[in-house]
Amino acid sequence: MYEPDRLYEEVAFVAYHFGWSHEAVLNMPHWERQRWCTEISEINDRMNETPSDRGHGHRGGGGRGRRRDDAGGGVVLRNPPESG
């Protein structure tokens, strides 16, 4: 069985970043939600790169790092929820 906390985390992550409905995200197979979480995180990594990060292969290593976005719009998740 899939852990409810993990499910909420994935649904919130994808729905927030793409504006998709709760129902649409919840009805996705687990593997697809995880894939979208990974894709969103890679987009966030690219958007959060500083000029000194560019060209150094920076890709937000392990853990669920957080960084303030450059536009001052708050904290942006850099990595998807931990696999479990």
Automatic annotation (TrEMBL):
Spans annotated as Disordered: 44-84
Compositionally biased region (Basic and acidic residues): 44-55
Domain DUF6760, chain residue ranges per copy: 1-80
InterPro entries, sorted: DUF6760
Organism of this sequence: Natrinema hispanicum
Protein name, UniProt field: DUF6760 domain-containing protein
Lineage start: Archaea, Methanobacteriati, Methanobacteriota, Stenosarchaea group, Halobacteria
Record's signal peptide: none
Pfam families: DUF6760
